[in-house]
Write a structure and sequence with these properties.
InterPro entries: D-isomer_2-hydroxyacid_DH, D-isomer_2_OHA_DH_cat_dom, D-isomer_DH_CS, D-isomer_DH_CS1, D-isomer_DH_NAD-bd. This protein is of the alpha/beta class. The protein has twelve helices and 14 strands. It folds into two domains: 130 residues, Rossmann fold, CATH 3.40.50.720; 182 residues, 3-Layer(aba) Sandwich (Rossmann fold). It is globular.
């Protein structure tokens, strides 16, 4: 372990720098915020997650971890973390972390809400538009030299304006998606654990049951976190209740949908199509069944992926780590 000396008038005191482990390579300007006070160790890969065996080794010595949603912190791993004080997760979701087990061990868990709200809402609505108007398919027509002439129904998609959007999960991102829907004069329905009177008044959104939302929406948009209650909630039963002309959009977590049921619903034309930024098991390959369907737009989990937003998320993680290690309350603690 790296050590440094603080020289006082009478003596030099040996002080151990706390160790911060970063599970993915981040820009130097962000890491430099930590290196003055802490010993920083970092997995140097940007594209690939830290292997489990490496994480086991590093967490045994770490006082703090700056983690990604691809890192799983379960009982087995936490039992090795005798010095760990804080896990700062670079994501809004924290289903990769056993928060209750952390609380039992006195380990603080933080996430990065709010800073990515508008960015993720932009992507979600862009995914909705791309799916409805068949934009990726149309791009392929050009790339494959298949555009021979104009015809009235070539790549004809579905209107978005004046349609009904049903948002499942009316958190801050769900509200931001609803705000964008107002610009398209959409009728806004939502379902949430709790009603949001302010959102209803400000956005004209209407609270309905999940069954009513599925039955009435032209676009069913999942913005709900992954919990025991929401796991697999979009299944064959849910798709059967949707309109045949409806689209399913998921920019929350892949685990809230049953991919096999979604595939069958689109294949059998029970619904029109889907726009997906997340999947049950990521990453997926080009031979994934859903990717084979023309009416599916698939993205590689890029909801908050802008340089500006990812930098803000990383800096929030850094600030949370520093505050906990300095004995202060973090800015965005996770509570369960």
């Amino acid at each position: 372990m790296q050590r440094f000396f603080i020289h006082t008038y009478k003596e030099a005191i040996l002080v151990a720098k706390p160790i911060v482990y970063v599970t993915r390579r981040l820009p130097n300007e962000i890491i430099s915020e930590l290196t003055e006070k802490y010993q920083v160790k970092m997995w140097e890969e940007e594209e690939m997650p830290v292997p489990r065996d490496v994480l086991k080794k590093e967490i045994a010595e770490a006082d703090a971890v700056l983690s990604m949603l691809t890192d799983t912190f379960d009982e087995e791993l936490l039992n090795m973390a005798s010095r760990l004080k804080v896990i700062a997760n670079l994501a809004v979701g924290f289903d990769n972390i056993d928060v209750k087990a952390c609380e039992a061990r006195g380990i603080t868990v933080t996430n990065t809400p709010d800073v990515l709200t508008d960015t993720t809402a932009d992507l979600t609505f862009g995914l909705l538009l791309a799916t409805a108007r068949r934009i990726p398919e149309s791009v392929d027509v050009i790339r494959k030299d298949e555009w021979k002439t104009w015809s009235p129904y070539m790549m004809a998609g579905s209107d978005v304006h004046h349609k009904t959007i049903g948002i499942v999960g009316m958190g801050s991102i769900g509200e931001a998606v609803a705000k964008r829907a107002t610009g398209f004069d959409m009728n806004i329905l939502y379902h949430n654990r709790n009603r949001k009177p302010e959102a209803e008044e400000k956005l004209g959104a209407r609270y309905v049951s999940i069954d009513e939302l599925l039955a009435q929406s032209d676009f069913v948009v999942s913005m709900t976190p992954l919990t025991e209650e929401t796991k697999g909630m979009f299944d064959a039963r849910a798709f059967d209740r949707m309109r045949k002309s409806a689209f399913f959009i998921n920019a929350s977590r892949g685990g809230v949908m049953n991919e096999a049921d979604l595939y069958q619903a689109i294949k059998e034309e029970k619904i029109q199509g889907a726009g997906l930024d997340v999947f049950e098991n990521e990453p997926i390959k080009s031979d994934h069944p859903l990717v084979q369907l023309d009416r599916v737009v698939a993205l590689p989990h890029i909801g908050s992926a802008t340089v500006e937003t990812r930098n803000r998320m990383a800096m929030l993680c850094v600030e949370n780590l520093k505050r906990v290690l300095d004995g202060m309350e973090p800015l965005t603690p996770v509570k369960v």
